[in-house]
Amino acid sequence: MDDYLAQALDIARAQATVRTMTAEEITAFALKLSQAIKAIAEGADPTAEPAPLPCDPKSSIRQETIVCLICGKKFKMLTKTHLASHGLTPSEYKAKFGLKPDVNLVCKSTLKQQRERMERMQPWKLRKS
Question: Which of 11, 21, 76, 119 is the most exposed, having the fewest neighbouring CB atoms within 10 Å of its CB?
Answer without folding.
Answer: 119
